[in-house]
Amino acid sequence: MKAVARHLAHVGITLVSFLFLNWLNELAFIRLEQSAGVNWVFIPAGIRLLSTLLFGLAGFEGLLLVGLYLNFHHFSFGSDFRAWSGAVAGALAPYLASLFARHWFDLRPRLKGLTPRRLLFTGALCGVMSPVFHHALVWVLSGTVDWTALAVMIVGDTVGILIVLTAAKGVIALIERRHPATQVMRRWTS
């Protein structure tokens, strides 16, 4: 029962975090929008990767739910396929990128082992995978690819991912330094 509650909490944290950063992104970076839904800075992409790195499958589930909500109730797409495919691509690509990173870099809890170089690689991997998945599914529907929008999405997602992951890594390090149990352990082990 405790594991189910934790799983649902992780899904909820992902949902709320993504919605908040999407709102913040629209507020702060709407002027950098290249076209509808394609932005030069997209900080919610950072939550996509961070939630899957921290929460695994629960992060994927939260991203899929928030993607479906936003695609059907906030953004306007020409077809249901586009809305569904966007939600799936927005959840699946970061989940796969996080699985690759966990495997290649042997990541441990709280992103231990995610050095700046690995952070850059993982962020770039997800920053490419998610837009490519989005545009591949649009290509299936329309038979065309908007190469400019794809390039802007890759830049925007990568920048957003690096902003959020760098901030999260800093917050985690700060919390660990200030956490009472960590301080007690340092006194006893030094």
Describe this structure as you would to a colleague.
The protein has 190 residues and is mainly α. Helix content is 80%, strand content 3%. The protein has one domain (2-30, 39-189): Arp2/3 complex 21 kDa subunit ARPC3, CATH 1.10.1760. It has a two-stranded antiparallel ribbon with strand order 1-2. Helix 3 packs antiparallel against helix 4. The chain has helices at 2-29, 44-55, 57-73, 80-105, 116-142, 147-178, 180-189, and strands at residues 33-35, 38-39. A hairpin with a 2-residue loop joins strand 1 (33-35) and strand 2 (38-39).
In a few lines, what is going on in this structure?
With 190 residues, the chain is mainly alpha-helical.
The CATH topology annotation reads as Arp2/3 complex 21 kDa subunit ARPC3
| Uncertain residue ranges | 184-190
Give me the count of strands: 2
The Rg value, from CA coordinates, equals: 17 Å
- What is the level-2 CATH architecture name? Orthogonal Bundle
The CATH C-level class name:
Mainly Alpha
Q: In which order are the strands of the major sheet placed?
A: 1-2
Main β sheet profile: 2 strands, antiparallel
**Share of helix among residues?**
over 70%
Structural domain count: 1
Helix and strand content put the structural class at mainly alpha
Number of helices: 7
Order of H and E elements: HEEHHHHHH
Report the sheet-strand fraction: under 5%
Question: What does the overall shape look like?
Answer: globular
Distance between the termini: 39 Å
Mean pLDDT: 84
